[in-house]
Amino acid sequence: MPSTRVVTGHDALGRALLVSEGALPGTESFQHSPGFSAALVWRTRVGASVGVDGRIGDCAPGSVLPEPGGSCALLVTFPAQSSTLAAEVDGAAAANELCERLPGLGERFEADGFHSTDSIDYGVVLDGEIWLELDHGQLVHLRQGDIVVQGGTRHAWRNRGAQPARLLFVLTGAVRNGA
């Protein structure tokens, strides 16, 4: 599903202005993971500011994962598992594509989809339903409108529903303590 990204800022007098407006790149389905898409909406680094000459962030190449104090927003579509089971998927090609399209994050995925990041993540289910699986097997069923807050936990997403699930994630970079 196409999305439009609108970015606002300020002119030299401090008045609000439209900085950019256009299609959000990255919402197209992955070639090697049919029905899956993940688009970097925006990213901020430490020291982001607003106002005249404010630097609210960018979408320049580099890791999509935020450093401590930074943030990123991702729009992700998870296809229904029933549709992906029918498709022949080349696991190595899918993993390479994930790393190319989501640098820094793709490398954190294990073969079974589990991953963790050094961030506090806010996930909002926009459409569909999805299951959050924690590393010890606990499953949490989330539906449209539900919100999950994750504190760097190892987890995987499973769409056991019949329709695609679309989620918005905002990751805030954090420092990992302990094991």
From TrEMBL:
Its name, as the record gives it, is Cupin domain-containing protein
Taxonomic lineage is:
Bacteria, Pseudomonadati, Pseudomonadota, Gammaproteobacteria, Pseudomonadales
What Gene3D superfamilies does its record include? 2.20.70.150, Jelly Rolls
* Domain Cupin type-2 residues, every copy: 115-170
CDD domains found in the cross-reference section: cupin_BLL6423-like
A Pfam family that this protein carries is Cupin_2
**InterPro entries, alphabetized:** Cupin_2, OryJ/VirC-like, RmlC-like_jellyroll, RmlC_Cupin_sf
What the entry lists under SUPFAM superfamilies is as follows: RmlC-like cupins
Task: Report the superkingdom from the record.
Answer: Bacteria
